[in-house]
Design brief:
elongated, 179 residues, mainly alpha, single chain, two-stranded antiparallel ribbon, Arc Repressor Mutant, subunit A
């Protein structure tokens, strides 16, 4: 809605406004582009000019949806799932993602899965076995090992100390992006 409002303010007509993508009917001048960029920044949004950045955002959105907003994790291989949804070769996506973000897609998924596990642990609605099943870990031991690698704590230690969660928008950011 924010994007649509900003486009209307600029007098631009759009055909499609979708997550991370806008299709504008007319060609826009550099001045209009700069005004649009400034207007979006005031709302906390960013205009991404290059296709690589847009593609990286799409990969991130697929992972966020898959890990945080779906009731059920996909039963297929994550790489197949991402590749199919975005209609790109996974190797290309993985290389591009690593180059731009400095972290592999797999590492990014793991960190997000652990954040989701933290959330589920703090809600105390599911036990560790149920969480392990829900998040498609092969075993509770696998989940516990991965959890400890990422957080430095076992799931039970985290729960006991009411551990701290990382804001989702900061997961996978480089130190430079966080400063």
């Amino acid at each position: 809605m924010v994007v649509k409002e900003e486009l209307k303010k600029q007098g631009l007509h759009f055909m499609v406004v979708d997550l991370g993508e806008v299709e504008i009917m007319e060609d826009i001048s550099m001045e209009q582009r700069l005004e649009l960029k400034a207007g979006l920044q005031l709302s906390g949004l960013e205009l991404m000019d290059d296709k690589k950045s847009v593609l990286i955002e799409k990969v991130i959105n697929v992972i966020m949806e898959m890990v945080h907003h779906s009731e059920e994790m996909p039963k297929v291989n994550y790489s197949d799932h991402i590749s199919k949804l975005l209609d790109y070769d996974y190797t290309y996506l993985a290389n591009l993602f690593s180059e731009v973000k400095g972290i592999t897609i797999q590492q990014f998924i793991i960190v997000h899965k652990i954040e989701r596990v933290k959330e589920l642990l703090l809600y105390e609605e599911l036990n560790l076995t149920e969480i392990s099943y829900k998040m498609h870990y092969s075993s509770v031991a696998h989940l516990s090992n991965q959890f400890k690698k990422v957080t430095g704590l076992s799931p039970s230690q985290f729960k006991q100390f009411k551990g701290k969660r990382i804001p989702l928008e900061d997961i996978g950011k480089t130190a430079k992006e966080l400063s």
